[in-house]
User: Fold this.
Amino acid sequence: MAICEIKDITFTYPEQEQPALKSINLEVEQGDFVVLFGESGSGKTTLLRMLKAALTPYGTKEGVVRYNGVDIQEWNEREAAREVGFVMQNPDTQIVTDKVWHELAFGLENLGTPPEAIRRYVAEIANYFGIHTWFRKQTTKLSGGEKQLLNVASIMAMQPNLLVLDEPTSQLDPIAASNFLHMLEKLNRDLGLTIVMSEHRLEEVLPLANKVVFLEDGEIICAEEPKNIGRKLQEIDVKHRMMQALPTAVQVFHALEGKGETPLTVREGRRFLSEHVSRPVSKRALEPASSPIQDEILVVKQAWFRYERQTPDIVRGASLSIQKGELISILGGNGSGKTTFMKLLAGQEQPYRGNVYVEGKKIHKYKNQELYRQHIAVLPQESQTVFTKATVKSDYEDIAYALYNDPSKVAEKIQGVADTLSMASLLNQHPYDLSGGEQQKAALGKLLLLEPAILLLDEPTKGLDAFSKQVFREILQALQLQGKTIVINTHDIEFAAEVSDRVGLFFDGTVVSLDTPERFFSLNTFYTTAASRMSRHLMHEAVTAEAIVNNWFKQHKSSSK
Amino acid sequence: MNDFTNYHPVVLLIYYIAVLSMTLFLLHPVVVSVSFIGSLLFYGLLTSARKVWKDMRLFMVIFLLIAGTNPLFVHKGETILFYLYERPITEEALVYGFFIAMMLVAVIFWSKAFSIVMTSDKFMYIFSKTIPKLSLVIMMALKFIPQFKKQIKNVHETQKTLGLYSDNRMKSRLMNGIKTFYSMISWSLETAVEQGDAMKAKGYGLKGRTHFSLFSWQMRDTIFLVTIGLVFLSILIIQVNHGYDFQFYPTVSNVPITLPEIGRTLLVLGFVSLPSLVEIKEYLQWQFAKSKI
Assistant:
């Protein structure tokens, strides 16, 4: 029997003409692991919020959501709070109290559970989630991954039967995200917990799910088993733009028109490729990368940095030379110091030994206005921090008027940026009302008004869906054509492989192994893209799904001749 | 070695109030000196001898300041030592200043020691029993403040790189302050809405909310409470019968070394050294247990 049944739900937000959800029908069985995907703004969050009566947004709603056969609006509040758990995107804002143990008990306290019983539940949950080692810590001292784990644990302490998660890993780094997803898998498998979640990164979550729902413009386009989702998308459009959201193995399988079972994981994809590639290429030694034209724009020489005198060095003798017009990605784990390194590049912090040179001149010799107009612009991880006004436009005008006195020139410049980023429709909105991808675009636009030669981007793809990422990639390529130099800090190895001219790994305070993406990822065994792990035994330097497909066709053609 | 911290927060608070009121209200040289030594010993056991020494150097200045100012401004007392600018400096005022200063430093050290023992969650626990709504608000504030500070720092750093600053420092600082303020308002409202949703999702607002804490009342809490109760009560009874009376003006009364006087001193000594005794006992027990391994 279905634990949760969504019947003919149509929902319209107040003062909106277009409904956010259009006659949605979905059944979730006991023990299901359902994954929702779709572009930002396709109605995922709205749909998920329909499942929890306390969070259902205001607006006109038709249809009914039944939980265990009863309309959720008719459930009494206490039962409703207990039965359905809800985890949101931002790990910080969901935590209520200051201590980990108290956060675990918070929900149970609300339900009026006696303290002795809370003690038992909390102990059990802390053990199951491995929280007992940081049980007495302060919640603000936790990492993002720990925070999100705590959020799930504190909800699980209330013993819900349905867990709803809204992009829970979008703010986490890949390792924390992977741990988090495995915890969900464990809950689903060991306890038979029913899970409904929305997610951008399908690479890891798809193999765990037993039902995948694709949402577009508030409509369910298809609800399928993971193995069939690629085929369904191709039935709609052979080159469906959401194909790139699917795992590499699925993309390659469909691009090569594979038959039979769809591979979902790297392991399955590897097997599929082995069967499909008729003639594996002999491994040849990789040629050393040809050194690019020497036209240095941003140089770091032997920089050392620490935040306080007593704390350890974060940047330890790092050197890096960035050429004009190239796009460099710096990869590295959480807490490796790559954000700090970027702060040195941006002149936000000063190395205590060594120097940073911008166009041949020491960075601290520049005056503030001189440096941040025409030279360097920084897009921070939290793009919200860029905005200080009520609309994107007034924020832009703020900058533009500081640069140009002439109102027509200001309007022209703003129009120019809006065209480059195709975001004219966002100009009159409040920055906080934009989705993650749009916010990023708007923040980038503000930086572009300063006409910087160098763009430093910190985790630009964090929380972006596959389509926004594609758009962002095109923007970067367009900017590169305009002659801009771009440095990206990222966890996203897939993205780095696609866009970069050179890729480096930030480790132990320095940039190690700076190389072209092809060489960087094919020489790495662990820290590399899914595509590279899948194809390394058959092809070399195929580090993206696209490259595998191209390589395959090349080999296939030459063998058929 | 912080065994005393493991007592129940209510016990700790009662002891703290008792020892402070005794130090403050029994203005008796022996009581003040004993309390002073007790506070130093306890603070030293909680931290280290070096830390006591380091802090002592600072408080010595305060001590001398207070002890020195009293005879300068107060000219009561019969025994005139000398004249300073035609004003009499009396022995009584000097003694009084000395003990007032010692009392204040003792109170400071007791408070320092108790700030280590009574952590915020223990205060929260006591509050949540008496004023539950307020305690939740304080707890949320404790969580929100670091988050808020971090966001301010982020906004500030970002705004710095947007090229709007002139090199006129005052002006750009002011401008940045206003910008950061605007941004923080939006951010705070946004965060509050999300936090509200999260609380609602976890059933906040249902009737009959309970309160969970990690503290539980144990046998030794009862024993400790009864002990401090008895000792404090005896001190009170003695005080009511003028056992701890002492006179500074017009002449300093002397403290005879008699049996009842020694008894009264021992009572106070016992009272102020209770936490230190707990610590020392724990230390010895630990050493003993270790030696048996």
Observations:
- Chain B touches chain A through 51 residues (CB under 8 Å).
- The longest strand of chain B covers residues 80-84.
